[in-house]
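A quick aside before the break. I want you to see a complete sequence-to-structure record at least once, exactly as it would be stored in a machine-readable document. Don't worry about memorizing anything.
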Amino acid sequence: QFVESGGGLVQPGGSLRLSCVASGFTLDGYAIGWFRQAPGKEREGVSSISYDSEYYTDSAKGRFTISRDNAKNTVYLQMNSLKPEDTAVYYCAASVHAGTWYEHEYDYWGQGTQVTVSS
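That is the input. The structure line, written in tokens, reads:
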């Protein structure tokens, strides 16, 4: 499973770095995705990273950066220039499929961390 952290309350234009630590398995061989779910909306993909590629949805391009440290069994999501519409619970998940946004292709999920962007 995963444990996400790093969420919180931030003003528009601010930054946060989310962390996702895996326990019970190693990240090697998995693509890791970040998803988010805003109130009243379906969960959506944000970014994912395989061993050699990064993927971003349009909402994240140019503002978010995903990275991984396999030695620490951790994936990060650096979020800059945050907007109120980025407010959501952010989840990380692991898949053997790189670059997919299909939730059924993800095997392990975390409990999520809340990100609130508000002045």
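Two observations worth writing down. The chain has no helices and eleven strands. The radius of gyration is 13 Å. We'll return to this after the break.
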